[in-house]
């Protein structure tokens, strides 16, 4: 029997795949690293435990192997808590116990009860990749069958296969064509938006770990099994930076799915700006390079839903130089329109290699190690300090000087570090404590004129803020459960954990957005020279979510092509296990579609990112400047 | 048995409303009906229970008080049908204390929503109902910006210091028209700035003059801790030090404040005694100022604060409105921020005539106590002991 608590925890997994990268430098699940299938990672095991509890997964040979492969090292417990506050270790223990008891009780494993009935397709797949790397065992396929998106139609793959090379991928595609079986490809095996479901062959590219630097040509060849985090780590160690997205996403998959977008797109661009060349396997199994063209024109873009036309097996990503005087800082803003105008000004003037407008919710969530604290910090930043928005600038000392000359309040990285390391002291939850900084600031009551944050940004007040927050890794760790504090203390003793440039390069905090509820990001291309359009869009999205009683908030806006266009992310949230909330989310997405179509009709520069799916390699101009 | 007088109080979870309910419920012949809105997941009944516990009401007093869950923001006051029927048929007197007291221009809409729209909802609710008296808690500052003495009469101001004053003025006009049309007794009470109990120090509202004292106390505790536990590096950077002889903390703060005639402060006990005394006088009708004839200057308040908190260094740089030579330090600005809300009242030169109120209060021996250091100390000791309200739980 699986406990209710175990089922509850297991059902909360958001499939963000952060257990598949060593993003805290605290190690990686050994079982997952060796076996690659999602089921061998904590994320997959969570799904398996949920299925066992629901009575839909019998004990199979792979389930026995998956359970025994877990050594209960606890790495996942820290990793998962860091971003979601979940503690998966007890779930891992329950899985092991369940399987061990099943066997010790002499109960049968599935293969012993049924006659062996090999799927000829599976046999052929195993001939290509080896028996270990292709499977139709339910304990394997089930971890690829669904995701937390409200629009996902679950599909159980007939087989899951993990090729190691482009050649193996070619053969897999040819076999699929020969058998008339559909196929779908996933970068790290995960899915969060429901787009990569199949009842045919699921190709998981985790094993395609090519990583070859060509420093003379300022690029790196990245196989389809390389994550954004691992690529950035390698590049950074060599003194470069790459423009990548979510850390657990595989670079090739991300490129194909949406094109790479980040705050660094302000300088490094998006879509085809990010790569030199890429290798693909066509839907017929032919190998081609995008530069060579061929039958599949991946540079083009059509404003319509596009099917998967080719599998990206590797890409040559551009390397960018870094300087020693890089730093990040924040410029507080009283409203969105002012923030957009200011950020556009920076972008036009080519100030900063990374730019974005962040909402108070984003900022509070990123810096707070637990969600209740994040709520209080959001209130402090947005209301008490009077800065519901901040422009984040990642640049060098010359960029900093340029912004200072623009006569703005700047929250330096030092202030940010103080805030982050002292955050538990900002607003302690216990009523028995004395006054906190937040109490003192809130007690100043209503105000007119300059927001309070402009005053707190003053360098001369830094000792006061430090005295109030007593920032240190130990202080920061004080916000988490006792047994994790020492680990948190060690993590936050590392300078990069409070470095705005590093944090945005590696984006390890962004997954915290899904901590409270599953995140449904709505991403649009918008004209940055029309801040009123963006503002109106944001208000429209806010009204849609509120009318359906869905948690929602502004995410970020980041410029592209020197302030001509921008990405806008607005986020809806849902309880992925609540049927009513799922239904309301579906209704909300319908209303969003209407809003976007209506807006696009009058402002064609507004485009939903949904059409970029499978067209993310396109030429930037083909997407951004067509009407 | 003589039927009880049914008194309906709005804003009963507020500072004045709750104290009035307490005082009026002490009289056996009164039945007090409170309108309280549920807030932050706490029911109206529970909110009142917490306040009643804080007021230390006796069982007898509590029994004379009934709580009606509702909200002035709703056209029907958000009452149940039975409650609405009861209040419409039984109410003898209305005491309207509910108000938004924000001075912020940014909160203008919210202030008008509560103070005007909410009032209109109340008046509509009782429009077709027969009752005897309407008592309205206004403010002495409805007079608007004027150099003339503020009289106990409807004022005709052209300009106000903030949306609160403006809304309260409009409310007076609305109520006057309503009561004139219904031909019922109207009494408008205009207190100045209300603080805690001058005898016990008790309060559950820690705004107004409490803000700056709280800020100084916070900064003092912070830097004493820094000096005693962390070598005082941060204190040193801010020019803050501890006098080893008397353990007084030196805070280099100069507040640039334009001063007027001082703050007019009345304690809640005097305010309530005055209102009830006027209320029970059947001949009393019209407007009454509840004020202190002795204003408190900023010098006095700073002196009290320094003495109470054992700090030195805080001074006032008299602003004449012209640009001063000294550039304020961020610490100056931070502390000045805690005075921001009341800045215009500190600069206020308005004086109030309370001859009408005095005619009733003087013979009864009801006199407003001077805001002396012992009173200040009592109030601030209570505030600190109760963690500026954090330990009160409501």
Describe the structure.
The complex is a heterodimer of chains A (627) and B (394). Chain A is α+β, with helices and mostly antiparallel strands. In chain A, 41% of the residues lie in helices and 15% in strands. Chain A has 27 helices and 18 strands. In chain A, a hairpin with a 4-residue loop joins strand 16 and strand 17. Chain A is globular and about 75 Å long. Chain B is built from 14 helices and 12 strands. In chain B, the strands form 3 sheets. Chain B has a 7-stranded parallel sheet with strand order 3-2-1-4-5-6-11, sandwiched between helices. Chain B has a 3-stranded mixed sheet with strand order 8-9-12. In chain B, helix 7 packs antiparallel against helix 11. Chain B is globular. The model of chain B has no long low-confidence stretch (mean pLDDT 93).
Instruction: Give the strand tally of chain B.
Output: 12
* Oligomer designation: heterodimer
Mean pLDDT of chain A: 93
Overall SS class of chain A: alpha+beta
Largest interface: A-B, 22 and 39 residues
| SS field, number of helical segments of chain B | 14
Helix % of chain B is 40-55%
Low-confidence stretches of chain A: none
Tally of extended strands of chain A? 18
Q: Helical percent range of chain A?
A: 40-55%
Give the termini separation of chain A. 58 Å
* Largest sheet entry of chain B: 7 strands, parallel
The order of strands across the largest sheet of chain A is 12-14-13-16-17-15-18
Beta-strand percent range of chain B: 15-25%
Structural class given helices, strands, pairing of chain B?
Answer: alpha/beta
Strand proportion of chain A, as a percent range, falls in 15-25%
Please outline the major beta sheet of chain A.
7 strands, antiparallel
């Amino acid at each position: 029997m699986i406990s209710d608590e175990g089922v509850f925890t297991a059902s909360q997994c958001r499939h963000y795949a952060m257990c598949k990268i060593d993003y805290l430098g605290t190690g990686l699940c050994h079982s997952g690293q060796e076996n690659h299938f999602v089921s061998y990672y904590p994320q997959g095991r969570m799904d398996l435990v949920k299925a066992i509890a629901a009575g839909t997964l019998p004990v199979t040979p792979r389930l026995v192997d998956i359970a025994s492969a877990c050594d209960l090292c606890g790495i996942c417990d820290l990793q998962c808590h860091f971003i979601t506050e979940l503690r998966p270790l007890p779930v891992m223990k329950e899985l092991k116990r369940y399987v061990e008891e099943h066997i010790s009780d002499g109960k049968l494993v599935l293969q012993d009860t049924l006659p062996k009935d090999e799927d000829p397709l599976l046999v052929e797949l195993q001939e290509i990749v080896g028996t270990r790397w292709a499977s139709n065992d339910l304990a394997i396929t089930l971890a690829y069958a669904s995701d937390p998106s409200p629009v996902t139609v679950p599909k159980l793959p007939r087989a899951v296969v993990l090729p190691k090379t482009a050649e193996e991928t070619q053969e897999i595609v040819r076999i699929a064509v020969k058998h008339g079986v559909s196929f779908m490809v996933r970068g790290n095996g995960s899915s969060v938006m429901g787009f990569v479901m199949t009842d045919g062959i699921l190709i998981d590219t985790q094993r395609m770990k090519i990583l070859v630097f060509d420093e003379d040509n300022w690029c790196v060849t990245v196989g389809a099994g390389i994550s954004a985090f691992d690529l950035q780590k390698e590049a950074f160690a060599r003194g470069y930076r790459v423009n990548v997205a979510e850390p657990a996403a595989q670079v090739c998959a991300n490129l194909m799915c949406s094109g790479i977008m980040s705050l660094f797109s302000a300088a490094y661009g998006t879509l085809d700006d990010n790569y030199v060349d890429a290798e693909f396997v066509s839907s017929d199994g032919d190998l081609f390079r995008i530069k060579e063209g061929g039958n599949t024109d991946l540079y083009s873009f059509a404003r319509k839903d596009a099917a998967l036309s080719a599998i990206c097996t590797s890409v040559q990503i551009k390397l960018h130089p870094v300087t020693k005087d890089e730093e990040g800082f924040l410029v507080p803003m009283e409203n969105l329109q002012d923030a957009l105008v200011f950020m556009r000004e920076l972008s036009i003037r080519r100030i900063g290699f990374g730019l974005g407008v962040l909402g108070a919710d984003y900022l509070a969530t990123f810096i707070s190690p637990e969600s209740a604290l994040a709520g209080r910090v959001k209130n402090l930043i947005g209301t008490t300090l009077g800065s519901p928005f901040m422009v984040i600038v990642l640049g060098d000392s010359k960029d900093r000087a340029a912004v200072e000359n623009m006569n703005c309040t700047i929250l330096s990285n030092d202030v940010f570090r103080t805030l982050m390391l002292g955050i538990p002291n900002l607003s302690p939850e216990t009523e028995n404590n004395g006054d906190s900084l937040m109490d003192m600031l809130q007690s100043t009551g209503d105000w007119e004129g300059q927001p309070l944050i402009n005053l707190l940004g003053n360098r001369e007040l830094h000792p006061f803020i430090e005295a109030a927050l007593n920032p240190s890794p130990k202080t920061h760790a004080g916000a988490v459960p006792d047994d994790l504090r020492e680990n948190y203390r060690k993590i936050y003793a590392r300078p990069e954990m409070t470095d705005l440039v590093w944090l945005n390069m590696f984006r390890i905090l962004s997954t915290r957005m899904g901590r409270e509820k599953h995140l449904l990001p709505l991403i649009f291309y918008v004209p940055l020279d029309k801040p009123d359009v963006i503002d109106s869009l944001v208000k429209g999205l806010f009204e849609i979510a509120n009318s359906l009683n869905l948690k929602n908030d502004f995410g970020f806006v980041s410029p592209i092509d020197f302030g001509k266009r921008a990405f806008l992310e607005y986020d809806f949230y849902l309880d992925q296990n609540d049927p009513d909330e799922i239904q309301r989310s579906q209704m909300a997405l319908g209303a969003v579609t209407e809003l976007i179509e209506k807006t696009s009709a009058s402002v064609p520069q507004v485009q939903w990112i949904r059409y970029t799916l499978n067209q993310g390699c396109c030429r930037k101009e083909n997407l951004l400047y067509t009407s | 048995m003589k039927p009880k007088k049914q008194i309906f109080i709005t804003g009963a979870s507020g500072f004045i409303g709750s104290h009035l309910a307490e005082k009026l419920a002490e009289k056996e012949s009164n039945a007090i009906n409170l309108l309280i809105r549920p807030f932050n997941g706490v029911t109206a009944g529970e909110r009142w229970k917490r306040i009643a516990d804080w007021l230390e009401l006796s069982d007898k007093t509590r029994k004379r008080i009934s709580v009606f869950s509702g909200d002035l923001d709703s056209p029907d006051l958000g009452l149940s049908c039975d409650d609405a029927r009861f209040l419409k048929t039984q109410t003898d007197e209305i005491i309207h204390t509910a108000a938004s007291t924000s001075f912020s221009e940014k909160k203008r809409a919210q202030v008008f929503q509560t103070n005007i729209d909410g009032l209109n909802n109340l008046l509509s609710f009782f429009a077709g109902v027969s009752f005897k008296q309407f008592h309205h808690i206004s403010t002495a500052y409805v007079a608007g910006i004027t150099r003339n003495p503020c009289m106990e009469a409807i004022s005709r101001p052209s300009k106000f210091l903030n949306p609160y004053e403006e809304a309260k003025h409009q409310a007076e006009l609305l109520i006057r028209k309503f009561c004139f049309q219904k031909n019922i007794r109207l009494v408008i009470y205009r207190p100045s700035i209300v603080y805690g109990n001058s005898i016990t120090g008790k309060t559950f509202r820690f705004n107004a003059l409490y803000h700056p004292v709280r800020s100084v106390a916070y900064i003092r505790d912070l830097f004493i801790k820094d000096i005693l536990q962390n070598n005082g590096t941060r204190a040193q950077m801010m020019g803050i030090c501890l006098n080893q002889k008397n353990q007084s903390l030196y805070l280099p703060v100069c507040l640039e404040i334009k001063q007027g005639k001082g703050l007019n402060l009345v304690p809640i006990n005097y305010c309530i005694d005055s209102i009830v005394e006027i209320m029970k006088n059947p001949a009393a009708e019209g407007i009454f100022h509840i004020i202190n004839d002795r204003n408190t200057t900023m010098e006095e308040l700073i002196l009290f604060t320094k003495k109470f908190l054992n700090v030195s260094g805080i001074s006032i740089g008299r602003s004449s409105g012209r640009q001063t030579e000294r550039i304020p330090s961020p610490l100056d600005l931070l502390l000045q921020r805690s005075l921001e809300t009341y800045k215009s009242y500190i600069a206020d030169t308005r004086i109030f005539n309370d001859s009408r109120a005095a005619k009733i209060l003087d013979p009864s021996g009801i006199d407003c106590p001077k805001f002396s250091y012992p009173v200040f100390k009592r109030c601030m000791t209570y505030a600190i002991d109760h963690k500026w309200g954090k330990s009160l739980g409501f």
